[in-house]
Amino acid sequence: xxxxxxAAAAAxxxxxxxxxxAGATFDAVKSKGFVQCGMxxxxxxxxxxxxxxxxxxxxxxxxxxxxxxxxxxxxxxKHTPLTAQQRFTALQSxxxxxxxxxxxxxxxRDASLGLIGAGVNYYDGQGxxxxxxxxxxxxxxxxxxxxxxQPGTTTELNLADYxxxxxxxxxxxxxEKLDEVVGAYASGRCDVYTTDVSGLASTRATQLPNxxxxxxxxxxxxxxxxxxxxxxxxxxxxxxxxxxxxxMVEAEEYGITSANVDExxxxxxxxxxxxxxxxxxxxxxxxxxxxxxxxxxxxVGNYGESFDRNVGKGSPLKLDRGVNxxxxxxxxxYAWPIR
Amino acid sequence: xxxxxxxxxxxxxxxxxxxxDPDVRSVVYQVVAVALVGxxxxxxxxxxxxxxxxxxxxxxFHFLGREAGFAIGESPxxxxxxxxxxxxxxxxxLNTIRIAVIGVILATIIGTVIGIAxxxxxxxxxxxxxxxVEVIRNVPLLLQLFxxxxxxxxxxxxxxxxxxxxxGVFMSNRGIKxxxxxxxxxxxxxxxxxxxxxxxxxxxxxxxKKRQDATGKAFPVYxxxxxxxxxxxxxxxxxxxxxxxxxVPKLQGFNFVGGATLTPEFAALLFGLVLYTAxxxxxxVRSGIQAVNYGQWEAASAIGLSRSxxxxxxxxxxxxxxxxxxxTSQYLNLTKNSSLAVAIGYPDIVSIANTTLNQTGQxxxxxxxxxxxxxxxxxxxxxxxxWYNKHIALVER
Lengths: 339, 397
What we know:
Chain B: Keywords: Amino-acid transport, Cell membrane, Membrane, Transmembrane, Transmembrane helix, Transport. Chain B: It is a multi-pass membrane protein. Chain B: Residues 93-385 form the ABC transmembrane type-1 domain. Chain B: Belongs to the binding-protein-dependent transport system permease family. HisMQ subfamily. The structure holds 2 protein chains of 2 kinds. Chain A has a domain at 124-224: D-Maltodextrin-Binding Protein, domain 2 (3-Layer(aba) Sandwich). Helices cover 38% and strands 15% of the residues of chain A. Chain A has helices at 2-15, 24-32, 58-71, 87-92, 107-111, 154-165, 178-186, 197-206, 235-253, 261-264, 270-275, 282-286, 292-299, 303-310, and strands at 35-39, 48-49, 55-56, 77-81, 98-99, 115-117, 122-124, 126-131, 145-149, 170-174, 192-196, 214-216, 224-226, 229-231. Chain A has a 5-stranded mixed sheet, with helices on both faces. Chain A is globular and about 60 Å long. In chain B, helix 2 crosses helix 7 (264-291) and helix 9 packs antiparallel against helix 11. Chain B is built from 11 helices and 8 strands. The longest helix of chain B is centred in the N-terminal third of the chain and has 34 residues, at 85-118. Chain B has helices at residues 22-54, 85-118, 123-138, 141-155, 185-215, 221-239, 264-291, 294-302, 307-337, 349-360, 363-392; strands at 163-166, 169-172, 175-178, 180-181, 246-247, 250-252, 255-257, 260-262. In chain B, the strands form 3 sheets. Chain B has a 4-stranded antiparallel sheet with strand order 1-2-3-8. Chain B has a two-stranded antiparallel sheet with strand order 4-5. In chain B, strands 6-7 form a two-stranded antiparallel sheet. By secondary structure, chain B is α+β, with helices and mostly antiparallel strands. Classes of the chains: A alpha/beta, B alpha+beta. Chains A and B meet through helix 1, helix 4, helix 6, strand 10 and helix 7 of A and helix 1, helix 4, helix 10 and helix 11 of B.
């Protein structure tokens, strides 16, 4: 099934019309009336269906923000759940307009995949999770362990690098679908499961039967700046995605929330006025409505709200803001100014 | 050349190019067809390259020489993350061939037994094999793979509580660990003896047949064959100095170290593929046997052959002619179905080529490699089976 999907996407690359070029994605999204968003589909907190079957998560909120900016309606999104292996081909071949799928921004992906990163919506790093009864306290003790990992990820490469660098051996069990690989870990087929720490927290909180039986080891072995990707060749579209993210972070910095955004319209702060389109110009420059950021904040909320609701203290994941706090609170979230 | 009959065998007069000349027409049609295929092919290739370049997607097979950087769970040859993508892909190809060869052999044996059992006079045996065939053939293979994988990983205990079924043999959710001979040239000699035994058996069967044709005396080929199969490796092992050291698996750290391992992924894939394909092979064998005229059974029993002798000497050889062509397609199916391995984590060619195409972003090249590998394997199976089919075909005298 998987092979079929990849083959179909590869075939799509062979047959795509030659006309698809600069500006095409923005225009195509505008004319079809919704954003086709590639996301994970099984990482709770980032992109997974809730009890009612609706997609929820930090990544999903970013897609909704783009839709709110484009159409004034955050619901004009169609989600395509993608595995780690399908995601790039799906974006390259035009099956989706953007990826918001806990994907690490790397040089290869910018330089040879024909894709381009549009920002970072979660600063992460790779970690390990083990069962408590194994008694392991550090990743350095994992010599000879069997490790579950998803293929085609930076995680898979970091894992091999880390064990090589520390002169440790390991046996990989490489399964493509997240549910299956977590199942293999839960059944004890592997001693360790490795992915980004946020993913481990999500797996522990939402997929493992007894969350308290598992411990995330202290070592974080890599930097994983996770963020949205778009195809190269349409700068207009890239800019819309990038600024939808910036608007959410900027809104948090200026204290604009989905609850007070209407009040904030009357604010005297020139920055707030520019963000909310009271002072016109910003939206027009993006080719959008002047209310683009207002719509994002009103319908999706600012970055902090989205974080708390999906992965932070208001969620089962209970992730600390950590490096994902705003720059003025000691974190790395630093939006480019809207002016 | 024009048909000589037209001119009564005389040499043809100097010809003029005419649309009415069937030779001219056929040449023109073929040239046009080749040109069309060429143009379509050229269009596809150039269009693809153009599209890839405007999308800034790198192309070509240069990545094959780069360091792969990812680890592979099981490999018949030495492999590490520091090796190249081409070696990783070779590992995948070998893993696919391994599952296909072992799978085809086991599925043929089990399928043939069940196919014969379906025609058994024993009511229970016949019904049980019918139920097997119906159930196995009507449940999707992917579900069966998940089922076997779950059975192995969920039912078996962890390595520390491994079941010690025999001295040195441990079953756990990390697989079945068995003692393996340590590296010693005596074992190589034994392997050579094993291969030599096949050659000797071949010679023996031919000699025995000649003798039986000439004198009517039968030679105990089965006993002789078994003797050779056991004796030759044993002889090689004895000549090598009869070493006794075995690499026995020991629990060390997280897992067993040493010995040979049947991994859960390989085992689940093998069980799934073999049992699934055996269901289809059973039907092929049953229909093949039923295709042999019932008169053959009666004639055989009239000359005093037992039922099993009749099956072995009269019916099965004739039914082979019906069985081989559909059997070929079952072998191809098994090989292609092994690509479902990706779902349960066995590192076959699809799994590894997929990882490669994903790490490098070169989807078209990756898919091309997968297609080339399956095409080569499938054509090899077809060529072999067609040769075999011709070999056993009815020779008309």
